[in-house]
Each structure stands twice: as structure tokens, then as C-alpha cells.
Fold this protein.
Amino acid sequence: MSGDAATARACANIALVKYWGKRDAARNLPAAGSLSLTLDALTTVTTVRFDPALPADRMRLGGEVAAPEVLARTRAFLDRVRALAGITTPASVESHNHFPTASGLASSASGFAALALAASRAAGLDLDDAALSRLAREGSGSAARSIHGGFVRMDAGVRDDGLDAYAHPVAAPALAARVRMIVAEVGGGAPKTHGSRDAMEHCARTSPLYDGWLAVVPRDLAAAEAAIAAGDLEALGELTEGSALAMHAAAIASRPTVLYWQPATLAALAQVRALRAAGRAAWATMDAGPHVKVLSDERDADAVARAMAGTEGVTAVTIARAGGPAELLPRTAP
Ligand code: DP6
């Protein structure tokens, strides 16, 4: 190996129609499709260098030596890249999350998307978008979507080898230009109680509502794509809030429960309903944590952000726009 480094940047994404459950855990194949918006305000920049002089893989995250469980998941991912490239060389990985605050907001989507692009390129591979998305998916299902910018649809696929399980961009330039996502952090970004990977598996095994959740996803996906094609933010917003609530309903019904919400989450949800009643474009979504993200548009984003910031228990608010695809950066970064 030459020891060449590659640096890539990827944006986080927030699912509008959620991914929650797998059809194959080993290959990390989702049980259903999903649909997301890539966000410009939350990015990860990752540099990978394969270096024969290293005794083993090593990783720094935000300038610190990565925790053992982070290194273990990264190493398993690098093993897939090495297998694809036909090499066995250890790698050094340097990753920085550029998130507005040090919150518990999910970084695995931007993290594995940036790692997939940087590691594959540093290993001498030149993967097309489909292959890159499949590779990112093996790190984290939501990361498959962060390969693309704007609105993105992830296909669950039907093949056992997962070749058809990757993400596609959903072209909607006008809607992508005016859409906004207001990220309202709750509880100071406290570490999440259940990681999404374990929680969705537990939900699939124990929740009496899991089958109902899975049944609704294809309908929501088709309706969300139609709403995007029509530029109908209101229809997309209603589907977004409905998908998040259905996912959380299934999670909450798990035995024992997977309950991410804090009192301020409910206060934020009520605020979103009040904004809507007052005529604002505002629809809520929540992931594997207490934070509330509000789908809105350029006209109402400032008013929505102000109202969210004034909600009891909301500790930080960021307005994000649609972000671009994962991309390689010049060698000097990060
Ligand atoms: C609630 O992508 O983190 O954010 O594939 O096991 O790594 P793994 O799961 P992950 O799950 C994301 C769950 C979610 C919804 C979503 O992003 O669609």
C-alpha cells in the first residue's frame, strides 16, 4: 500500500419516514425503506490512511483516542473495506464531528458515510454512489442515506446479499431549497439511554406494535415521495410527524419499554402543534433520543426557532438547511 490518505466530509440526515428494524442484522439490511433530509449544519470530516507501519488500526475522534466500542465498530467496518480492496493493511482514522453543540445528536449517519468514502478512497477503490451507499449501510443503516444530499430514499431491497439495499437521491430542487429543519435539543444533549441498534432489535422482538409499524412504512414512503414530487410541504410534514409517532409508539410498547422522551420533549411537541395552529409550517420528528426536530420552511424557520428556544427544557436550537452529498476534501483537511 502507498499509505495515501483520503479525507471526506458527510452531512448528517434526519429521517422523515423512519428506519426502525432490520430484515438481516449480519448484513445490516433494513426491514423497510426510509426517507430522509440531509442537513448542512451537522457534518463529520474523516481522514483515513492505510499504513503498513502501524501495528493495528487506531482512531481519534474529536482529537481524543476513540473509546474501545467505537474503535471496535470502526475496525469491523475497515475490515469490510479491506476485503473489498484485497488488502490487510492497518489504518489510522481521524474524525471530527462539526455539530453545533456537543449534544447527543446522532452522528453515526454522517460518521459512517464520511468513513465509507474516505476509507474506500484511501484503500485505492473508486466506488460508485450505489456501492458507497451499500458500504455505508454496513456501518449504519442511516449512513447509507448520507451519501446523497437533499431528500433521499433508502430501499430495503429483497435480495439476501443486500445488493439492492442502498439509497437514492429524490430530486426536488425547489422544495430542497426552501425546506428547513429546526433542531431543538432537549436535556442538554444527555447521552441516549438506548442506542438505536439495540433498541430497534428489542422492539422487533418484544413490541406488540412492531408489525403494525412495519405495515405502515411502505404506505408512508409512497405518500411522502408523492408529496415531495408535488412540492407539498404540508403533506410531507404530516407524514413526517406521523411516521415518528408511529415509530415511537412501537418503541414505547416494547417490553421493557424503550422510551426516549423527556418532559421537555412533550413540551416541544405541544409547541409544534401550537405553531401549526397559528399557521406556521411546523411538523415534529424525533429519533433515538429526547430531541425534537421540526420540519419547516424558509418563511417560518426563524419564528419556529424562536418558539422552540423559548420552550421549557429546550437547551439549544439550530436551523439547518438541506445539505449536500458526501464528498472528498483536499488533502490538507480537516
Ligand atoms: C431512529 O442507522 O443508527 O435514527 O443501522 O443499527 O446503525 P443501525 O441503526 P441507525 O438507526 C437510525 C434510527 C433512527 C431512524 C432513522 O434514522 O431512520
About this structure: The chain has a mean pLDDT of 95. The CA atoms of residues 286 and 292 lie 5 Å apart. Residues 210-229 form the longest helix (20 residues). Residues 178-320 form a domain with the Alpha-Beta Plaits fold (CATH 3.30.70.890).
